[in-house]
Specification:
It is a single chain. About 40% of the residues lie in helices and about 15% in strands. It contains 16 helices and 13 strands. The chain is α/β, with parallel strands linked by helices. β3, α3 and β4 (about 75-80) form a beta-alpha-beta unit. It has helices at about 10-20, 40-45, 65-70, 85-95, 105-120, 175-185, 205, 215-225, 230-235, 260-275, 305-310, 325-340, 360-375, 385-395, 400, 405-420, and strands at about 5-10, 30-35, 50-55, 75-80, 100, 160-165, 190-195, 240, 245, 275-280, 315-320, 345-350, 380. The termini are far apart.
Length: about 425
């Protein structure tokens, strides 16, 4: 039995020779279509006619999105580069192509690479998931597939990714994300704060940064094209203090298509090598349109949020300390479990105040969350209107603007507990100096 293969290469003469070699039948492969461009390749792959594709590094418009669509179609990829072209080889590997050969390889070598690519293409690897809906997600109770073995040459960093998420209603996700990042930086950990809110991020405004070009969108664009590396990510991240960098987000909600999940995952994985701690401010919505499960070409608005939650080592679920906020939090925790199975979020009740809940606020809220959400451990962050408003008006963190604020002290304790260090009994009066 011969395995069907597609080709999309720029050298027509070489392609013709390859097709002739495969037609001998002794290599186990057969070229079913010679695609003229990327659109032709994707359209043919979507029909299920092929098991693998041979493509050139110089194929126009080739990016992670295209490779993701090939993966969803069940088409393994083998990349071809000009002999000695290290830049083309590096770009394909950054795009997620694991099997790359020089274009002067023999048909036998290409055949072996194709067979190896097909056998190892169990599912898209980390950083190569498609931003489009996967039609296989609509199938019920499919057996889980084994995770692919990580490539030891990828250089995955050891930093941690922390996602700050919460339901609709503005429970204070951004305030806590900025606060947690600044506290981790204040404790001497190199920290990257990422604004990944697809409905319009405000981290730049909260920190008083004038940035018309969102850093995350630029990083995602480079990642999608296989051009993002560690120095490039460091250049896009604004340096706020010696230990704190910020990757600003999109201020306009209509720019959400720029934050494709596949690219955001790559950015976060690279961030692990840039900083010891990466704090991500997420969007609120976890909705997945069921209709999109049948359309492999439809982008998902909330895909970036889901990608962050799946990549995160720790997820903080933030709710507001009032009846409406608690109801939303309880319901959203169930939605979070459905969207990211197995996640064990750290539940934070923000804006705690005596007038928000009758009686002993902490006791009543803890009992309600235990009864209705099965949550035993809760972190409480008290409301300090004057301190938070003052920091926001000045474009500063609470560490800088209000070091004695009850809100700041609660977030500082959270950061210290995360790192396993003891917090000083008295608030630190030294404010982090900003880099201008």
């Amino acid at each position: 039995m011969q395995l069907p293969v597609l080709t999309a290469v720029s050298d027509a003469v070489w392609e013709a020779d390859l097709v002739a070699a495969f037609e001998r039948g002794d290599l186990g492969l057969a070229v079913v279509r010679r695609c003229v461009d990327l659109a032709d390749l994707l359209a043919t792959a979507a029909t299920g006619q092929a098991r693998a594709a041979l493509l050139s590094a110089d194929l126009r418009r080739l990016d992670r999105e295209a490779l993701g669509r090939l993966a969803v179609a069940g088409v393994a990829v083998v990349g071809l580069v000009p002999p000695g072209d290290e830049q083309a080889d590096r770009r394909l590997r950054q795009l997620g192509v694991r099997h790359v050969l020089p274009s002067d390889s023999t048909p036998e070598e290409l055949s072996a690479a194709v067979l190896q690519a097909i056998s190892s293409a169990v599912q898209p690897s980390v950083g190569q998931r498609t931003a489009h809906a996967d039609p296989r997600a609509a199938l019920p109770d499919l057996p889980s597939l084994p995770e692919p073995v990580a490539d030891p040459g990828t250089g995955v960093g050891t930093g941690r990714v922390l996602a700050v998420w919460g339901p609709t209603g503005a429970p204070g996700r951004t305030t806590l994300a900025v606060g947690l990042a600044s506290e981790l930086a204040d404790l001497g950990r190199s920290t990257l704060l990422v604004d990944a809110d697809v409905y319009g991020g405000v981290v730049a405004q909260v920190l008083g940064l004038l940035d018309e070009a969102p850093g995350l969108a630029a990083a995602a664009r480079l990642a999608n094209n296989g051009a993002l590396d560690l120095p490039g990510l460091a250049e896009l991240a604004r340096t706020v203090t010696p230990s704190l960098r910020v990757l600003t987000g999109i201020a306009r909600a209509d720019r959400w298509p720029e934050l494709r999940p596949v690219a955001v995952e790559v950015v976060l994985e690279l961030a692990r090598s840039l900083s010891a701690m990466t704090v991500v401010d997420c969007g609120f919505c976890l909705e997945q349109d069921e209709e999109l499960a049948y359309d492999t070409a439809a982008p998902r608005r909330n895909g970036a949020t889901l990608a962050v939650l799946e990549c995160a080592d720790t997820v903080y679920a933030v709710g507001s300390g009032d009846p409406v906020g608690l109801q939303r939090l309880v319901r959203s925790l169930g939605e979070l479990q459905d969207a990211v199975p197995g996640v064990q979020p750290v539940v934070i009740v923000n804006r705690l105040r005596p007038s928000g809940v009758p009686g002993d606020a902490e006791k009543e809220i803890r009992a309600a969350l235990r009864r209705y959400a099965g949550v035993d451990e809760v972190v409480f962050v008290p409301l300090d209107v004057a301190g938070v408003d003052g920091a926001l008006a000045a474009g500063r963190t609470l560490v800088e603007a209000a070091p004695s604020s009850p809100t700041r002290l609660a977030v500082a304790a959270l950061a210290a507990g995360l790192l396993g260090v003891s917090r000083q009994s008295r608030p630190r009066r030294r404010a982090l100096s900003r880099l201008r």
